[in-house]
Amino acid sequence: MHRGAGPAFRWARKMASSGPEPQILVQYLVLRKDLSQAPFSWPAGALVAQACHAATAALHIHRDHPHTAAYLQDLGRMRKVVLEAADERALKDLAETLQQKNVDHMLWLEQPENIATCIALRPYPKEEVNQYLKKYRLF
């Protein structure tokens, strides 16, 4: 474990142990599976970076939402679920659905190519968003 992370995790565990059980929040990410396959064949590190970019951007954009604040306050309890979309069209279709249903998210576009690579939702209770994500498999 990184030395600097120790105190933050100890603080998060201490916060988690005080009071009633907090609501479990999940940050969902949907990453394009086809980018890992030919003809793209992106390395695993590049795919992980896309998911990290999207997750960080979604947390930043929605930093003032109470769910995001609660999610970030308890670092030891952060939950992320990474799902796969078949291709760019599937990812953009999901983004459209989320937009129509007023689900807060970030569609990450890799630059300078302007390629949609990943969607990250802000942290949500899973019951609120799983209906939009249930057709996607774990990455």
From TrEMBL:
Keywords: Hydrolase. It comes from the Eukaryota. It catalyses: an N-acyl-L-alpha-aminoacyl-tRNA + H2O = an N-acyl-L-amino acid + a tRNA + H(+). Gene3D superfamilies: Bit1. Its EC number is 3.1.1.29. InterPro entries: Pep_tRNA_hydro_II_dom_sf, PTH2, PTRHD1. It is an enzyme of class 3 (hydrolase). GO terms for molecular function: peptidyl-tRNA hydrolase activity. This is peptidyl-tRNA hydrolase. Coiled coil: none annotated. Pfam families: PTH2. Signal peptide: none annotated. PANTHER family: PEPTIDYL-TRNA HYDROLASE PTRHD1-RELATED.
